[in-house]
Please model this.
Amino acid sequence: MRILIMANFLAGSSGNFINSLLALADFCKSKGDGVCFLFPLRDDGTEPNWMAYIRDAGYTVYTYNNEQNNSKEFLADLIKAEKIDLIHSHFSCMHNLLLWDEDIRRSVKILFHDHMDYIADQPEKPQKQKQKKLAKRYRMYGIGVISVMKKKNRGYLTVPKHKYIPNGLTLKRNVSRSLTREEYREKLGLSENDRLCLFLGWDIYRKGVDTAIKAIRKCRESNDNIYLGIVGFGPRPSEQKVEIIEKYLGFSPFCEGVRFLDTEEDMFALHRAADVYLSASRTEAFSYGLLEAISQNVPIAVSNIPGTRWAAKYTKCRVFDTESPDDCARAVSELLPLRWKESNRDKFMKKYNIDDWCKRVYKMYKRMVSSGVGR
Model:
């Protein structure tokens, strides 16, 4: 079996996503199958560093530019050259081409991986109607789909080859050595008495950046050693991002206690440096960040939404009312004393381990390739 894994992914660090794909590729390789990758180039034609990281692991990485994004010829030539049997597409990579081009569909099996929840600031009903239409096309053309969210997966029940598979966690990252808590806190300029609340917020509204900032301001009324470290916009957010944050926040995000941090490859060190991990999302499919935080025994505060309720079983988790900064502040304050307490994190590491994830995805691969539709 020859597999092409493609993803519309251009993050600055490899993170859990790329390392999960590498674990999956290694698993396929152990079964005697071949894997290659396809990713877009940045607008300036450059590649993120993690592409070389994948090549160093022994895999071929193809890239495409904007002109090639919907090029039937480009993709058909790649399929032919690599003798591809199955395409595994992430983040809607070349979705329209794979869905609508009959020649491509006949030449290869297609598996879409749905990583997303419904869009937070849009009505859910029309989104479900659109999903229903897509599911009809998937069924008609023999396309398979994996959803990381149980709620979203229900919209694919009419697709014969569909599967709910939550994300798995790999501890591998593209670093030679992961920094200790003390080393990373020194890097951030934090004292021993400072308390860091870590927040990943690249999507302003969906991730609830406004709720997080308001909550930390509330916490600082009784403890001005609490800081919110926001990852997702770089240390100097663009004027456009600042304006959007201000729109939801009602005041400047550059306030006491708020720090904007660089995107970090060594995320486990950043989690170790934190005292609480905060997820204030309005919608979420499945959070890599929560798994990473739990793996480092970090207390977590999560909004009360379907995509994060699974984490409520973690003994160092507090759930707060979505959209409520006051309740969020309450959750963070309750968690701060728990940083060094024991927890049931090992159960989560066992349940969401990367080996089981690879086995479940690979089982879907075999199911797709053994079916009678397509190549």
In short: The two ends are 12 Å apart (CA to CA). The longest helix spans residues 124-141. The chain has 16 helices and 13 strands.
